[in-house]
Design a protein that fits this description.
six-stranded antiparallel β-sheet, 5 helices, two-stranded antiparallel ribbon, Chemotaxis protein chec, about 25% strand, single chain, about 35% helix, alpha+beta
Amino acid sequence: MFLSSYENKIDKKGRVSVPATFRSHLNSMGYNSFISYPSFNHAALEACSQDRIEKLSATIDSLNPFEEKRDFFATSVLSESENLQFDTEGRVSISGKLLQHAKIKNNVLFVGLGKTFQIWEPNNFKKFKIFARKKAYQNRSNLKWENKQKGEMS
């Protein structure tokens, strides 16, 4: 899983070191890269493994091929996605287009979200995190343990 948050600096050549735990998780899945695309919801980047973007692509493909929604999703996610390969030192080069969407200039914050992660400008994430914590507190009753069998203790 992708857990925790890690801040790293972009070097003069535009490369950033991906957290070792994130690389290790991707390597355990057989990947030496990840897919990134602009977030719909935030000035941030979504990031995931190849199999996750394939699952998203299959979901888009399941829509009616003649419906506008299908084209909107494919254009907004798939055409904007980039495959970011690790170099020998575990760094990736994030394109200017993606950096611009996330308003990233010098530092990058990798934010683990379980099966995916996001890439943020650190100060923008600080603001979002305060908002997210308030919303999570307000909606905490929606988060329930799933019981596998009757009688199993949570």
